[in-house]
Design a protein that fits this description.
This protein has about 400 residues and is of the alpha/beta class.
Length: about 400
């Protein structure tokens, strides 16, 4: 009864699964009854090194005994180190640290508007976004999101966003006006159905931004820090964005977000224009640095590419075996989607009962987000459970 009463004291924001997880190690989590689950959600693309990764755990323990918080009134050696690492890996020039993906996207939006108005001296403010995108839950980022369900009940929404079809060159060219200051997109739409951007369309966006003096903003909250087999999804496309937003995997579960920008775009921010109390605190930076070091030193990007190939191969075999139930397999790296001819929720619930945790990405799409340390045996087991779940009526 006590547990039920405590639940009622929480706001009713989430449709929670009937599972209380109390422990995790590697790719396995356990509930309070001792049942184990193979986690192919990674906490929604967060625990990319598995649960309680050793290097990150060690670094956090050391930092907990040293310093937690100072605010951004002071210089931060760990912030400087993390910024150096992220700019080296991305090819961008400047970094700003915050606490979440929504905050990172807010920062990117603010850079685009202020760059247009204060650096370029124009009155531009509008940002083009795309249908089925997901950029966050703040008022600005849910307005930028191309899904009406997240906007219900929050009118009036902020002005300054125009949402058009994804992978549509004609709609893109028609949407650019003398109000446009930037274009914001995910290169793989995670929440919106695991749709990857067409490479030629992405190059066209880069060309149009250059032609019209716009900033290209790439939301890598879910795809960044190795999820697609490269440090950043934009590296698959042969382009360089002006601004990149990050979060999720950056801290291996410790809340941290970041905005990366070119030197020119970063001119938009000056003292007093944007800030955060908790962002980039020593604990967050310790987690981020240990995460980046682990991926580099253990060559995990190569492992992501290898295991992604194995997982995609098995999922496509599943599609061939069950053509009346599996429509398609798509995505990049270890962000893969399986589109079904039936509701995904039923399949997810059945798989969970069998000890496999997977996600949805829309009403009929299963989203698979295993950690970078997933094994061939775990992939094989997950696909066996998934096949059983799809066929179960």
């Amino acid at each position: 009864m006590e547990a039920t009463e405590k639940t009622f004291r929480l706001m009713n924001n989430y449709s929670r699964w009937p599972v209380r997880l109390v422990r995790g190690q590697g790719n396995t989590v356990w509930d309070e009854a001792g049942k184990s689950y193979l986690d192919f959600t990674s906490g929604i693309a967060v625990a990319s090194l598995g649960h309680v990764p050793p290097r990150v755990t060690k670094r956090l323990h050391e930092q907990v005994d040293t310093l937690w918080h100072t605010s951004n009134l002071f210089e931060h050696p760990l912030q400087e180190q993390a910024a150096d690492a992220l700019t080296r890996l991305s090819g961008l020039d400047r970094a700003f640290f915050c606490n979440s993906g929504a905050e990172a996207n807010e920062g990117a939006i603010k850079i685009a508007r202020r760059f247009a108005q204060k650096v370029k001296g124009t009155e531009r403010y509008e940002i083009i976004t795309f249908q089925q995108s997901f950029h966050g839950r703040t008022l600005a980022t849910l307005t930028a999101t191309g899904q009406d369900k997240v906007k219900d009940g929050f009118a009036p929404l902020p002005t300054g966003f125009k949402t058009i079809p994804y992978n549509d060159s004609e709609a893109l060219r028609a949407a650019i006006s003398d109000k446009t200051c930037g274009i914001l997109l995910e290169l793989v739409q995670g929440e919106g159905g695991v749709h990857a951007a067409d490479p030629e369309w992405v190059k066209e966006i880069r060309q149009l931004c250059d032609q019209h003096g716009l900033l290209m903003l790439v939301d890598e909250v879910q795809t960044g820090i190795g999820r697609t087999g490269e440090w950043f999804a934009f590296l698959h496309y042969g382009i360089k964005p002006d601004v990149v937003s990050l979060a999720k995997a950056l801290g291996s579960g410790f809340p941290v977000g970041a905005v990366l920008a070119t030197e020119q775009a970063a001119e938009a921010f000056a003292p007093g224009t944007h800030g955060t109390t908790f962002g980039g605190n020593p604990l967050a930076m310790a987690a981020a640095l240990a995460t980046l070091e682990t991926i580099e030193q253990e060559n995990l990007l190569a492992r992501v590419r290898e295991k992604s190939g194995e997982l995609e191969k098995r999922l496509k075999q599943l599609q061939q075996q069950l053509p009346e139930q599996v429509v398609s397999v798509r995505g990049k790296g270890l962000l893969l989607g399986v589109e079904l001819t039936r509701p995904a929720a039923d399949v997810i619930a059945y798989a969970r009962d069998k000890g496999l945790l997977i996600l949805s990405a829309g009403p009929q799409v299963i989203r698979l987000l295993p950690s970078f340390i997933t094994t061939e045996e775990e992939i094989a087991h997950a696909c066996e459970v998934l096949a059983e779940a799809i066929q179960h009526q």
